[in-house]
């Protein structure tokens, strides 16, 4: 099988020649792997690990005023031009302020421009981008077709409006909005879903294989806003986004990324059309149970422990966890082996190789 055929087989619940893999890697880990394989080319590392066939192409949101002020500085984070406020603090195109954490492992949210909003009028006064600000890649459909000819599985993606709303509004404020100020929350969602919905429609028309919605809305023991509030507010918007795209291409895959446990709303996610679930974090979701209950409808894209086995286990323990996952969850396709988030510097090169070569 080609890499594209392998991925499509797994997602269509057919038996691939071997289980496809995917991974995210911290910049320090990337450097160590390049040194291990004696290459400066990250694509060479992915090939050595057997991570093949994944491609992506998504329309962007143009922010010309911001882009004129943004500056790319040396260093791995944030890895793109931003407006710097000091040596470690920067502002993104939405006006959200972040700080690069000690050691440079992650960026930390600092403040959002809608934290003090009290009314819908305050929400509407924010300079929201519109669908007119969406910029498609030149010859979008042609580029997607060419990527497929190169045997790539082509994905596009948007943020989860819940995640993006709390970063604008502040987590405490947004959770209060679910209960006390739902009109403010719906006003933000109207803007996000209009914008992101159009991006997804354009990507679907261009022929991408998959649309991803990325952003955590769960903790390790529950849904952050609670299942009831999620069903009342988020579910209808997500359902419409998926239905609109499937009206163009009924076969487009929909992928959702959320760390933590989403067991309480798995039936809902399947009902509205998500068919690739990432990362099925094994510390709080049992991949075997997920496979038993929903395995005929969804693909598990994940399942490998990033909190325990990868950083703390031996290479043999890592291999055994991967093989156990494949035996229990990949018997009829429907599995992509994926460590449950970004592989951190506390994981050895030997364990990474054991994971992807198992």
SSE topology:
Elements: H1 3-11, E1 24-25, H2 27-36, H3 42-49, E2 54-56, E3 60-61, H4 64-69, E4 83-84, E5 89-91, E6 97-100, E7 107-111, H5 120-124, E8 134-135, H6 140-149, E9 153-159, H7 161-169, H8 171-179, H9 182-206, E10 210-214, H10 227-248, E11 253-257, H11 266-272, E12 276-278, H12 287-294, E13 299-304, H13 309-312, H14 315-329, E14 335-339, E15 342-343, H15 349-357
Parallel strand pairs: 1-15, 2-9, 9-10, 10-11, 11-12, 12-13, 13-14
Antiparallel strand pairs: 3-8, 4-5, 5-6, 6-7
Helix pairs in contact: 7-8, 7-9, 8-9, 9-10, 14-15
Give the % helix: 40-55%
One letter per element, helices H and strands E, the order comes to: HEHHEEHEEEEHEHEHHHEHEHEHEHHEEH
Task: Name the poorly predicted regions.
Answer: none
Within the largest sheet, what's the order of strands?
2-9-10-11-12-13-14
Helix-strand category: alpha/beta
As for the CATH topology of the largest domain, it is TIM Barrel
Describe this structure in words.
This protein has 358 residues and is an alpha/beta fold. It has two domains: 291 residues, TIM Barrel (Alpha-Beta Barrel); 64 residues, no CATH class. It starts with a helix and ends with a helix. A seven-stranded parallel beta sheet has the order 2-9-10-11-12-13-14. A four-stranded antiparallel beta sheet has the order 4-5-6-7. The longest helix is centred in the middle third of the chain and has 25 residues. Helix 8 packs across helix 9, helix 9 runs parallel beside helix 10 and helix 14 runs parallel beside helix 15. 44% of the residues lie in helices and 16% in strands.
